[in-house]
Amino acid sequence: MRSSTLLNWTLASSLLSFGAVAESDVSSPFSLDRENEHQTWGVSAQFRVASTPYDLDQSGSSTTSFIPLLHFENDYFFVDGLDAGYKAYEQGQWTFNAISRLRFIDLPEDLQHEYGSARMDLGGALGYQLTDATIAELELLSDSDGALHGNWRISTEYTGEDWWVKPSVTLRYKSAEFNSQYYAVEDLTGERIGAGIDATVGVEGRYHLVSNLYLLGSTSLTVLDDNAYSSRAVDSNTQGEVYLGFGFFNEPKKTKRSDVKAKPYVRIAHGWGTISNMGDILLRWDVEKDEYNNQMTSVFYGHPLSDTLFGLPLELYFTPGIGHHWSSEVQGHSTEYIAAVKAYYTFQWPFQWRFGLAQGLSWVDRTTYLEYQDMIVNKDDYTTASRLLNYLDFSFDFNLGDAFNNSNWNDIWLGYTLHHRSAIFETAAQYGRMKGGSNYNMVYLQFDF
Q1: What CATH architecture applies to the domain 7-249?
Q2: Could you give the CA distance from residue 185 to residue 56 in angstroms, rounded to a whole number?
Q3: What is the DSSP letter of 383?
Q4: Predicted model pTM
Q5: Percentage of the chain lying above the pLDDT 90 cut
């Protein structure tokens, strides 16, 4: 596989969907006309276990990964776990979506960093609604090297008061280039094989435990084609996977934006890099300055989702953002793309203060100096840094209008945020099976509107 950094087609391609508009009477996916727009949202964490069909003189017949996931859908675009995209067309029973999808490469874990652990594919999905519960889909996808594969899938949904189950059957066509790259492992073995069709049966489900808390799970079994199975790298003609985890989602009957009182916002921040880790910063304010004074500026949009979580007064937002890493004597400039879900808790003391926490994904188009030092220079096990990483945001701010008794500033907040990227300690294949990251201490102004 080319690289474990997920290359250039990762989160940035998914974020393009934020500007797309489906066929609708409303002109913008972020329209403030809240009466008719429906949306679903969620944050989940799942543990994935997959068998590895390869025989490459490496130990281990399975691979595991911890996967934080985002879920958001309205009338125009969606982020659903490993998939993201925009709804380009909907007419009658037909739909067409432009999609990106994170695909795991289940090599033995000892090889994943060097030869690849996951890739982001781009393409389109044509759907036909057979019944209210059953849909047939035809997809065509490509990785960043142009290796094509296509899926034909039929799935149906069964629902109860507290549960939802979706079984599916998928036939996947894999081009010769795709089969050679991901099953013959051409970069390692030098072997090229022909195209093939494999078959997958699977089921996914969700069970409502209490309030916003759900139990999530899925499993599937794939039967490989003869060309893949006959390659020197593969010693099994089947491959299975299991996901299990939990998530926080909106309650099913509360999906209209008209129910949400929280206001959209724009946040502008500027910050300075530090070589201190997150624990030292947040628990002890032990901040060691970056000697090269690397800095970044970011802009975030906050799209309101809910005023409560578990009945508590926690405002929730879907928040895409973009960051600019300024050039310095040790790095060129680079751009960072972020998508996250953020929660705010507001309290009075003696004026309004807020704590905030965000969880999401972040992709940078060029590895920054701080991350290169932390992932490569300070460690012996890695040769490349992952540009797709987990994103966390810890913030603390106060309302300027309330603090200075000026009603003209009631929609302005001044605060501090920790901008954190990390690979989650080698537990996440999607982040290159490595550890390390970066931290920036930032100040910001946030404008509600």
Answers
A1: Beta Barrel (2.40)
A2: 10
A3: S
A4: 0.86
A5: 77
